[in-house]
Amino acid sequence: MDNIHPIYILILALSLNILSQLYIKLVHKFTFLKSIKFGFSLGLVFFIIFFYNNTKLNIWDKFEISLLYILASYCYIVLINTPESSVRLKILFLIYKKKITKKKLLQKYNNNEMFKLRLKKLLKSKTIGIKKYNLFVINKNIIILFYLFKFLKKIYLGNNTKL
Amino acid sequence: MLINVFLIFFSICFIHLVLFRKKIYLNFYRIFCLFNIPIIVLLIYENTAYINKFYYFFSYSILFVTYYFTLLGISNDSPSLIIIREILKKNIKINSLKKKFLSEKLIEKRFKELEIDNYIYFEKKYLKIKKNKNFIIDIFIQLRKLQDQLNKKNG
Q1: Which of A14, A106, A107, A114 to mutate to test the interface with B (most CBs of B within 10 A)?
Q2: Predicted-complex ipTM score
Q3: Residues A35-48: tens digit of each pLDDT
Q4: What is the mean pLDDT of each successive set of 10 residues along chain B, which is 155 residues long?
């Protein structure tokens, strides 16, 4: 067990993550978010057990592999979430299905419709809440994410950014 | 060695950032070449076992994909983040929030981007997808099927 190359550990943990996410989502009908959390946690548990039993890897190696696992999981989440969240893909799906004019497409999917869907989604996932017709943020992690994106936007796009 | 991979990656990120700030925008293929050619050259001349080379390339690819996805996120305004932004700006009444959201004209922006990026075109008033882009949609349709995401609630 001590001589296993880090690439095998990484691939094993990622496979465990993806397969368990798919299994729990398709067989046990878990929600998308819950299945992702489950898959990620299972991969992490595998790491903890493996690191505990492995004496050859030093602390830096363990840090590297853990970081790569977290980043690879992030890529997987973004990839599988894209068909559900991308506006461009939604437009392309509508065009792909059947012949459609721009006018009809905008009747089916427009800013108003998008606002309704997003608000519903955010309320359902308890990211935001509503009290006496006033909206407020429940999930504080989204605020961290928001400011992280704002910071990155400032670095890349400069001060003329709205977000 | 892996630390060198990280250092190469962050150096190229810095070069890309400089290009971005100078408003030199690269398409995906150019970004791919900018990031991947140095590591491929380095790995060809690196005197190490193939398994190690694969490990370094795999790690580098994870870093690159993470960077690219994050870059896509920050260069496009996410509808959900716009709602969060307005709530944090104390635009907490649904009607005023909706007014702000509609003024962003996100659909129109995305539509224009699809046209500029040659994804769609018009044929006798009807919208069509460029044939060479069909495979991207096919991939995502398969991904949706695999994840059982056919509830049509996306948006």
Answers
A1: A114
A2: 0.86
A3: 999 999 999 999 88
A4: 88 93 87 94 90 93 94 86 90 88 91 90 89 90 84 57
* Phi, psi dihedrals of residue B35, rounded to the nearest 5°: -85, -35
**A139-155, pLDDT tens digit by residue?**
888 899 899 988 998 88
Residue of A nearest to B68 (CA): A75
A17-36: pLDDT as tens digits: 999 999 999 999 888 889 99
Cα distances (Å, whole numbers) of residue B47 to A24, A61, B4, B50? 43, 20, 14, 9
Helix (H, G, I), strand (E, B) or coil at A105: helix
The residue extents of the domains of chain A are 6-85, 86-122, 125-163
Best of A20, A24, A62, A91 to disrupt the B interface by mutation (most B CBs within 10 Å)?
A: A91
- Exposure string over A122-139, b if 16+ CB within 10 A, otherwise e: beeeebbeeeeeebebee
pTM of full prediction above 0.90: no
- Is B79 within 8 Å of A87 (Cβ atoms)? yes
At A4 the pLDDT is 81
Structure tokens at B16: 């890309």
The DSSP line for A28-53 is S---HHHHHHHHHHHHHHHHHHHHHH
CA distance B154 to A117: 8
Q: Does A83 touch chain B (CB under 8 A)?
A: yes
Distance, in Å, from the CA atom of B12 to the CA atom of B89, rounded to the nearest integer, reads 36
User: B93: Cβ–Cβ under 8 A, 6 or more apart, which residues?
Assistant: A133, A134, A135
Domain edges within chain B:
2-75, 79-117, 128-155
